[in-house]
Structures are given as C-alpha cells and as structure tokens.
C-alpha cells in the first residue's frame, strides 16, 4: 500500500515553460485559457513546476501565486492582457519622448561629458506599478507550502557575471546548480526579479538585484545568454515539459529595400533571435537526447539518472509579425513616429512592432489565436496533462530537422 506522499513523489512532474516575446506573450494566455476550460473548474494548477522568461516570467508568476485555482489565475491574466495599453507598460507620451530624444542627442554630441548616457530608450516604471498593484509575491510561498506548487524559476541575465541566471523559489531540499554559462540560485521571487527578466537591452533599464548567491549585480532580460531554457525545469525535477512559444515557423519572406535593412528591421531581427533561437536550439538537443536514451535506456551521468523528458510544444499557427501590421494605427502617435524614424513601419519592420504592441486590439487577437490553436489539439493537450505516454509532437520534430 502506498501513501499519498509516495504517490505524489512517484507521479510525473509536469513543467510549464513560458519564453519571452514582449506583447507576443498574449498568445500564451489564449492557450492557457483553453486548457483551463478543458480541466475541471476547481482544479489546482496542473504544472507544479513553472519556468518563465521576460514577459513569460510575468505569466508564470501569476500562475504560481494562484496555483491553488488554475482557472482563477488564467482569468486574471486574461483580464490584464485583454485590456493592455502601451502606457501601462512604458511611458510613450510625446513630452517624455521629446525629453528622452534630447537627452540622447545631448549625450551623443557631448560625448557623455554634459549628461550621462541614458540607461534605456523607454521608462518602464508604469509596468512596475502595474505588477506591484496586482501581484502579492507572498502567495508564492503559500502555494509551495500547500503543495500546489513545487517550484517557480525566473530567468535573468547577469551583466556582472556574464551568465544566464535562473532564480528559483521551491520546496526545501532543492540544490542550486552551476554550469559553464548558466546557474540556478535560490531566491524569494519579488518584483525586482520580474523587472530584471523583462529588461530588454536598450529598450528598458537594467535592474540591480541584491543578496543573491552570487552577490549583488545588475540583470537584464532573461533571454540573453539563455542557451538552455529547459535546464531549470529539468534541474527542478520535471519529467514532462509543456512549452508555449511566441514565434511561428511559418515566416513570410520580406523583400528588403535596395539600400538594405533599416535600423528598425535589424533591431527586430535581433529581438526575434533573442527570444526564439535559444529555445528551438535547446529543443533540438532535447529531442536528440530523448532519441538516444530511448535506444540505450536510462543512464547515470554525473550522479544523475538520464531518462527521456517528454515535451509538448505549442506554437502560433500564423505569423505574429504579419498580424501586428494590421494594428499599427492602435499605437500611440509618438511611438509610431519613433518607429517610422527607425524604419520599422514597413513590412520588414513588423518584428519590432510585434514586440512593442501592448494594445488591446492586438493582444486580443493573439489570445484568440492561442485559444484556437490549443483547442485544435485538445485531445493531445489533455492527454499530456494527465501524464499519458506521449512522444514529442512529430510536427515539431520535423520543423527542427
């Protein structure tokens, strides 16, 4: 006869990995909403392990705070993302944009002698205010103590350490880890960890985090240097991983102007690589490891048992950049002027737009897209959550090889 504790210990742990993507992370809400409707109303979170990066870190934290009521957590996220506007995330008012523009110009012309160079292009203190008023971080520990959550991990990139850092809050007994380019450190997740994780380089200011296992330091967006986004889920004990990506592989070719790509196009290309390339590279490695271990059987490596880690990948069925072009007029006029000056309002600049378009018309369309994509594979989705045997989706594997 097995006890409840033994059953819980032997049951597979499913992790939810939510990568970054700026306003594209609204897509994740649609997938989660579909899942919440497929599960019983009063059910706790089906994901005892939550891993979030950048905007995905915000979504993961809300799920951790209300891990005892999955549908409530998803409903809270849906309400915020469905009614988003740019001023809730960063200050894009005309006076502020003019002041910041003059600051940049003066710092450039004086070589930094008259004024210090700006820390970032935008001031995202409105986002800090929004998160502070909506998140009670003490509830994360409550979720852990009541057994609804095993661990929450938030990624950030250390400017001082040149290392990808995964700050995690978990049940006692979890050991930190250190690898060549990334590490996991215990922490009481708070607002600074979230603001660091969303601090996209150049766009938003870096954040200083104190009292870490590696000393105080400045941190930026968690997607930077993140070569192994699945690492924290596996270190925290996940047997199965669900990933909700924010980038479709169905990309349309863009005809570049004869003079070559604009600054806005190049910056959007960099953000696309920042948020997506590490994820898909790590997914390819995981597929290869799974294939090897299935043929050889579980093996011990560095005192750890290597066994297959089942993965389910959900990604947008349509190109989000293409969707963003239809919503340009919804952006504040001052932001449209800035994007136009960067060459980001033409077809080739839609990547950059899609990451900054925190406007309800755009986020609502992404939520509906995520909902529809999830419902189209509702059977596989429920089977995966219930722990039924399943190999990584063949469509995902075919896209990577």
Description:
The chain is of the alpha/beta class and 401 residues long. Helices cover 44% and strands 14% of the residues. The protein has 16 helices and twelve strands. Strands 1, 2, 3, 4, 5, 6, 7, 8, 9 and 12 form a ten-stranded mixed β-sheet that branches. Helix 2 (26-38) packs antiparallel against helix 4 (70-82), helix 2 crosses helix 14 (360-376) and helix 10 (263-296) packs across helix 13. Residues 1-10 and 391-401 have low confidence and may be disordered.
Largest sheet: 10 strands, mixed
Total strands: the figure is 12
Indicate the low-confidence ranges by residue numbers: 1-10, 391-401
Global shape: globular
Mean pLDDT: 85
Question: C-alpha Rg, in Å?
Answer: 21 Å
**Class computed from helices, strands and strand pairing:** alpha/beta
In percent terms, what proportion of residues is strand?
5-15%
Entry keywords:
alpha/beta, 10-stranded mixed beta sheet, globular, disordered N terminus, single chain, 401 residues, two-stranded antiparallel ribbon
Write a brief caption for the model.
The chain is about 45% helix and about 15% strand. With about 400 residues, it is α/β, with parallel strands linked by helices. Helix 2 (about 25-40) links the parallel strand 1 and strand 2.
